[in-house]
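Listing S7. Sequence submitted for prediction.
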Amino acid sequence: MILGREPAAIVALVMAALYFAAGFWVVLDDVLVALILAALTAVLDLIVAAKTDQTTFGVIMAVFNTGLVLVVHLGLDWTDHQQAGFLALAAAVIGFFVQRTQVSPIAKATFSNEQPLAA
């Protein structure tokens, strides 16, 4: 829950507001609206993952991916190679600082007779 609401309800409200604004004041194409909603969904997923103590690597990468697609659509002039390099660097940095390594040793492994294994 974010602001006392389900994330899907927040996305639906923003979607309705975007289409309302597009009908009266702002020129928004369907691709831009979809990209805004994808980026919003990724950010809300990140908030939910942080609140529920889930691993956040994939969710953070989703924020970077959707954010990059959005800013490229809005006019950022990066080649495919520059975009791939940015995402590769983002994955490496996020993996280094956020993702817990999965090589922790087992403290005291035991068999069914509850005798600790010799180190």
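Caption to Listing S7: primary sequence and predicted structure tokens for the chain studied. The CA atoms of residues 28 and 67 lie 17 Å apart. Residues 7-97 form one domain.
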